[in-house]
């Protein structure tokens, strides 16, 4: 008693171009950071490195997710996307803590900074970031990872602006503590990004119901159908951000198995069109789970 609905996946071309651009930004900022002595530029480089990692993982898991389901992976491979988002968030968290520590060192032991080089490289990074943001903007709503990569790039634009401002201040007034200050701001931003990815990916790994799904309304809709007496023992979860699974027991009148066919079709149609549920497994019963609630704390 299940049904499959196919989803179109976003094309990876723009993602690929943005990855290439990020590699270029990262390398030029690492070189620029070392030559100019600016930690903020290096911080932005590491930030971009995590974007590159996010992009590569997103591209890889988009491909992997298109693979057919098989006997080992009966849910398919879409969750690789969630795993990769988690790995990337971990990398972001580690990098931001390294940046905090390095910034603290620079506060205590300032080094001379060549503001001109810092400013030019930061400007190049900013422009490249803006182009990447425009590229990914259109496909941002399509998957958690592409949206993640997009939001990531958008925030990189902010951190690049920060480094540009830092470069201006260093060039004009030779105030070197601005450099570790901008580094800390970039690190805070990266940490914030990591947290939001962990929260969203964590919800999916915890089999949380999709945000905004009102189970009580869904129950009322199903119970309004003829012959349906109650709905109980329900589980709703997401395999990925575009696939929602549902299973539940339907207590019906003492009708023939054949008569449950039209009811099943009505329920599956309702679940799909009104609640975005892409895969439903329904167990029809006659008075066999006495006292079971909508949600059951049992093991089965
Ligand atoms: Zn970023
Ligand atoms: Zn039951």
UniProtKB/TrEMBL annotation:
InterPro entries: Cation_efflux (IPR002524), Cation_efflux_CTD (IPR027470), Cation_efflux_CTD_sf (IPR036837), Cation_efflux_TM (IPR058533), Cation_efflux_TMD_sf (IPR027469), CDF/SLC30A (IPR050681). The keyword Isomerase does not apply. It is a multi-pass membrane protein. Signal peptide: none annotated. One of its GO terms (cellular component) is plasma membrane. It comes from Candidatus Cryosericum terrychapinii. This is Cation transporter. The chain crosses the membrane at residues 15-39, 82-101, 113-137, 149-175.
């Amino acid at each position: 008693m299940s049904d499959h609905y196919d989803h179109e996946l976003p094309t990876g071309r723009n993602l690929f171009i943005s990855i290439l651009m990020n590699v270029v930004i990262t390398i030029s900022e690492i070189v620029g950071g070392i030559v100019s002595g600016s930690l903020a530029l290096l911080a932005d480089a590491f930030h971009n490195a995590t974007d590159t990692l996010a992009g590569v993982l997103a591209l890889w898991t988009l491909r992997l997710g298109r693979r057919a389901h098989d006997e080992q992976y009966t849910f398919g491979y879409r969750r690789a996307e969630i795993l990769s988002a988690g790995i990337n968030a971990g990398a972001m968290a580690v990098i931001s803590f390294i940046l905090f520590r390095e910034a603290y060192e620079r506060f205590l032991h300032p080094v001379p900074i060549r503001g001109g080089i810092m400013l030019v490289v930061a400007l190049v990074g900013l422009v490249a970031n803006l182009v990447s943001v425009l590229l990914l903007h259109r496909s941002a709503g399509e998957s958690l990872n592409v949206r993640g990569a997009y939001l990531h790039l958008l925030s990189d634009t902010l951190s690049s602006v920060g480094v540009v401002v830092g470069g201006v201040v260093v060039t004009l007034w030779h105030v070197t503590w601005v450099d570790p200050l901008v580094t800390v701001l970039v690190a805070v931003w990266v940490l914030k990004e990591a947290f939001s990815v962990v929260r969203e990916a964590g919800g999916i790994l915890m089999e949380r119901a999709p945000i905004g799904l009102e189970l009580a309304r869904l129950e009322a809709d199903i119970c309004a159908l003829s012959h349906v007496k109650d709905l109980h023992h329900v589980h709703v979860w997401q395999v990925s951000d575009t696939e929602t699974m549902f299973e539940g027991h339907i207590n019906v009148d003492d009708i023939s198995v054949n008569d449950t066919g039209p009811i099943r079709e009505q329920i599956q149609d309702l679940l799909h069109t009104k609640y975005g549920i892409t895969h439903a497994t329904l167990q029809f019963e006659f008075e066999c789970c006495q006292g079971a609630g909508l949600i059951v704390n049992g093991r089965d």
